[in-house]
Amino acid sequence: MANVTHLSASISLPSVIASPLSAIPIPSLFFKATESGSWLYTSLAVAASLLVLEQSVYRYKKAHLPGSTWTIPIIGKFADSLHPSLDKYKKQWASGALSAVSVFNIFIVMASTNEYAIKIFNSPTFATPALVHSAKQILMPDNWVFLTGKIHVEYRKVLNQLFTRKSLGIYVTIQDIICRRHYTKWLEEAKKTDSTMPIMFPVREMNMDTSLRVFCGPHIPDHAAQEINDKYWLITRALELVNFPLAIPGTKVYKAIQARKIAHKWLELAAKNSKISMAAGNEPECMLDAWNREMASPGYKGRTDFSDREMAMVVFSFLFASQDAMSSGLIYGFQHLADHPEFLVRVREEQYRVRGAHLDKPMTLDMLDEMPFLRTFVKESLRVMPPVTMVPYRCNKPFKLSENYTVPVGSLVIPSIFPSLHDPAVYPEPEKLNPDRWADPNGLANSHPRNYLVFGSGPHKCIGVEYALMNMAICLANAAVLMNWDHQLTSESDDTEMIATIFPKDGCILKLAPREKA
């Protein structure tokens, strides 16, 4: 209406008659302007109503939980999530046992206590793993990690057999050979440059090489393994807790999906080749072989019709777990040993006691059994800096978490791992790295296994716990006897970068040198 008033006040009758506008009747002009203003007001009214509705829904879902009173329209806390930090999450956890945020109208409930974390992990009827919002797009929605009930049990029935001591005995040799090969490469590079290097990407490259050979063995060509290695960082970047939700060209999620397609092509080929090899009567050389051999064993009573695609999806999910979580754990393992030389001395003493002068002798499970301090160090390093600090779940139905709060259906509910691992009632001086807290089987730490949530809990607990611990132990054991390393401290050494997992923000900068045999 303001536009119409201005128009009628500024045009005198003679000027209208003398101008081309005289061909348009004034009532018609007035009607069109009024109609235009009406659409404008209608649009503004609809937009305002939607914003009010958004705020009302958010406040209704939030109820009495700590969190912002209002949410930023549409995007919510998206801007904050672009640069996540452990300190920000610590503040969120400290705000209450349960707290709420909203991002792109995804309502999120954060659970910070061990009690609530355990309840979420162990309530598959109400909540199932969502990992991150983009995970189903990248890993694919029918990946076994998202399945529940009988179909999930059928997968676990055979996959559990891939992590028995017999199967681990196959993998240990591969892990040992590959980490030695990469350490030789690291030392050659260090000798050329005589300078420090961030180990974040060298560790990731070593872990991917290890994982692909453990999982796929000779059934995947070298150039394919390298292609997966080169592309996988795109997948990691897209598995941040919050990302732009649409997979349109140019976005992280879109690039990750393209990288996954490439990886899946080769993993399906590996599954096919493994089936052919096992049918020919060859001995198992990798995890896929162990899987196919298990399904053909006389006592096996589970599914035997896993397709190449299904097997590839499982291997891909294992890659996700091993590549990001184990890389994080191993990088912090190096950093913790460098920053606590008294522990590095003890690791080395144990290695020389078990190995003697035979440092080139291949590692075995029996040898690892004789290295209790190494195992407690790995366990404590993971406790202090757990690779995964939280695991998002999606509510399938209203989930009554406490007496006075029910998580709405469709919401994300996130059991936080970090607070349980830093509970001073269970781990005195929780920020202190103290492997000896695990030495006494009846000690405080060992008496509270429910607090050690590094690998989750419940029906979706990480299936490869022993594999992960073994890989970290082998890598650190070999590093201890093959290399010396100094940690170059920077202003970002103690800061964390949160991607799919956590890493030292400076990439953990080390100066490496070969170690003379004792």
Helix content: 40-55%
- Give the end-to-end Cα distance, rounded to a whole number of Å: 91 Å
CATH-defined superfamily: Cytochrome P450
User: Would you give the CATH topology?
Assistant: Cytochrome p450
* Estimated structural class: alpha+beta
Total strands: the figure is 12
Q: How many domains, as an integer? A: 1
What is the highest CATH level, the class? Mainly Alpha
Classify the beta-strand content into a percent band: 5-15%
How is the largest sheet built, in terms of strand order? 1-2-8-5-3
List the main descriptive attributes of the protein structure presented here.
Cytochrome p450, globular, 12 strands, disordered N terminus, 518 residues
Kindly describe this structure.
Pfam families: p450 (PF00067). One of its GO terms (molecular function) is monooxygenase activity. Mean pLDDT is 87; it is low at 1-26. Helices cover 53% and strands 9% of the residues. The chain has one domain (71-514): Cytochrome P450 (Cytochrome p450). The chain has helices at 2-10, 13-18, 26-62, 78-81, 86-94, 114-121, 135-139, 149-159, 165-193, 200-216, 222-238, 252-279, 287-296, 308-339, 341-355, 365-369, 372-384, 418-421, 465-482, and strands at 98-103, 106-111, 127-129, 197-198, 393-395, 399-402, 405-407, 412-415, 483-487, 496-498, 502-504, 509-514. The protein has 19 helices and twelve strands. Helix 9 runs antiparallel to helix 10, helix 10 (200-216) crosses helix 11 and helix 17 (372-384) packs across helix 19 (465-482).
